[in-house]
Amino acid sequence: MTTTQPTSTKQDILQHLLKKGQATAHQLADRFEISPQATRRHLKDLETEGLIEYRSVQNGMGRPQHIYYLSRQGRSQFPNNYDEFALSFLDTLAQTVGEKQVKEVLRKQWERKAEDYTKQVGNGLLLERVTRLVELRRSEGYMAELLPIEDNQCEKYILAEHNCAISGVAESYPSVCGHELEMFSVVLPDCTIERTHWMNHGEHRCGYLIKAK
Prior knowledge:
Blueprint: H1 8-20, H2 25-32, H3 36-48, E1 52-57, E2 65-70, H4 72-75, H5 83-97, H6 99-121, H7 126-139, E3 144-149, E4 156-161, H8 167-172, H9 175-187, E5 191-197, E6 206-212
Antiparallel strand pairs: 1-2, 3-4, 4-6, 5-6
Helix pairs in contact: 2-3, 5-6, 6-9
């Protein structure tokens, strides 16, 4: 089947579903200020192209409501530049030197990444540093955003990543996600970092709670 290039509105819908995880046709129509009929045509096209799926939810006595979300193919439309080569390389490396050595290579890689991030994030106020970290992650295809949390006791943020640029690697080698958590802790040594969401557990984003010590 030949997949047509999504229109701007279709791409907007895909990005919204990537970010929010799911939405109804009515919610999408309101979000993009287009008619419900036009929204359903876009959704039908995206479903035909295999980019989205839906599940039906019964609300009361009325017709079932369709909840739309990205398919695996839909997620693949977003940056994951490292996946194909990196996964093939790691599989070959595992066959050659063994799983233990591969885990060591991955650990070394994230140590280098943490060093690079630390240099680029620099010093300054926590908000300045986490904002710079989000910019770095976004430039690498993670579709990251910073969500402030109101707390009178200390400074808190959620670093949310709505797309994983290395999702294929993370599925096959989940230890990279643990190294990622360690990496953020190195880059922000005056903070505690906790994972709040994880795509590998079926959630629609990865999330990290950043809390000033």
